[in-house]
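Listing S7. Sequence submitted for prediction.
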Amino acid sequence: MRFWRSWWRRTCRRKGRSKPRPGFLILLLAGVAAGAGAGPNAFEARVQLGTIQDAAISETSGVAASCIHPGVLWIHNDSGGMAHLFAVNEAGALLGTYSITGASAVDWEDIAIATDSEDGRDYLYIGDIGDNTAVRSAIQVYKVEEPDVDTNTTGVVTNLPDLSCRCAPVRDRDQPAGV
């Protein structure tokens, strides 16, 4: 109960509310109750759908499901590889290799996909954010429009323009977060 009062003071009172809305409390309690009985084994057993079948994909680090093509997954290699994205199907078969023009792949760690709220198109965001040796002065996030994939062919190489690159300085690792 102490947590609830503390949270309420920090968030809702700043917005001018004196007490919580009943609908919010019901949703909060329903969420807590739904998770209460789940236990440590709330997930079903894993099911292997496939295996990556191409030697060029040696150390995958990120995965994102296509928004345009059901059953297509976007993956990339971790550090040391070329600036390539790979489209694979759920069985792991390579559908295409996509080279990102102007990008480098120092240590790609993750990939995400999102629809742009302004133009409605889907974009892949590739995080060149790894720094295992703690020597990088900046990290980068590349943005490319999700390309078309021909699910009936394999191994097609396509060049994609890097639409935007966001660079950010790496903060001092000994400094507390938020400083």
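Caption to Listing S7: primary sequence and predicted structure tokens for the chain studied. Residues 1-35 have pLDDT under 50 and may be disordered. The two ends are 31 Å apart (CA to CA).
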